[in-house]
Structure formats: structure tokens, C-alpha cells
Predict the 3D structure of the following.
Amino acid sequence: MNSRQRRGIILVLLSVLAALGAFVGVLSVISDVESKVGPEQTAYKLKTDVQAYEPLEPGQFERTRIPERWLPDTAVTDLSDLAGKVATTTLHKGSLLQRDMVAARPALRPGQQEIAIMIDASTGVAGKIRPGATVNIFATFQGEGDKEKSTSKLIVANAPVIDVGKLTPFQRTGDNDPRRDEGDAVPITFALSTQDAQRLAYAESFAAHVRLALVAPGSTTEVAPGDRTYTLDEDG
């Protein structure tokens, strides 16, 4: 074997060693990436915008896979966790669904019943009433003739709201209804005792207007019986 052949063999061996080194390097990079990424976990993204306090349905979300090490601890990984839940704020398309974005729908307590009425959007607390809120319900009654005074009454104090519907065109159509008008209204559902539900039903049927006053979170309104009714003469 002459010197030229020996050099050729050495070059071939060096090439083989270089190829082996490159292969080992690639394996090392792949192993490093896998160790950093780790196993993946199922999560869910929104397929469309969801409005605040809207009930959540499985069809509003799409499945995605995210490495566990990058997945927030609050991420929803099982859609069954959404049963009976509503969005706590407006959720935007493409957002990763997390538990702090949802909350349980307010429920009835023993002795309560659901009652819903249409609230004029212009006389309610427009856009601020949400499930879980507490409101005072006022009704204004028009006096009949010159001898009877118009009055405002606090019908129900600290009424819990459990559902708020969508803005709907509304018209009173009763021929004998002195409040005959039209406009936009929102169906609002309350959780009330039987007596308070009767008060609200009466006001919805006979009052000229029913208005809501939002109560500050965590507080309640204590009203003396004599302060539940107001007439303009009281400011005279």
C-alpha cells in the first residue's frame, strides 16, 4: 500500500467519523428539544366570540394540543367541567379557555322561585345588570284622576338576579293598558320568595314603569316600611 492509498483510507475514516459525530449531534438536539417540550395535554380554544354571562356549550370550542410544561394550571382540559357554567366576561375567538373565565350560573335557594319580567332598557340599569347581581326593584304607579297621587314604591329590596336575556323589541298591546308603548326591553330573571314574586308580578302588570337600582356588591339595602313609598308632596 503506497502513501496515496493510505491517505485515501485515512480520509475515508475521517469522513465516517465526522458523519457519526453529526448523527450523534442531531440525536442530542432532538433529545434536548423533546426534554424541553415534554408530553402534550389536551386544551380548548374558542371557535367564536362568547358574550359575558352567556351559557357555555361544547360547540363553542375546538380541541388543541399544548405541551404540559407550557399549559397554564387554570386551563380547562375537560369540557364536562363547563356544565351549568357561564362566561364571566366577553371571551374572544382563539383564546385558550381557562377556569377563571367561567363561573357557575346563580342557583335558587330553598324557598325561592324563578320569576322573569321584561325590563325597559331605558329605565333599567342599561348594560350593568348581570347574573349574580343584586338590585332593588321600584315601581311607579300613576294616580287616577286629580284626587289620587302618583307614587313610587320599593317593591322588592335586594333581589338576586339569576339570568339576563338578550335585548328584544317589545310592545305592550293591551287595549286597556294605559302604559301602551314600545321600545327595547331585556328579560331579567330573579330568585324571589313567593310574596316578593307576587309583588313583582303585580308591579309588572299594573305599574306605569318598573325600574331597577343596582346594589353595590357585598352590600344590602335596609329600608324601613315607611320609606318604601314616595310621593312628590314629600319634597314640598
User: Anything to note?
Assistant: The chain has a mean pLDDT of 79. The first strand starts at residue 40 and ends at 46. The helical segments are 3-37, 194-206.
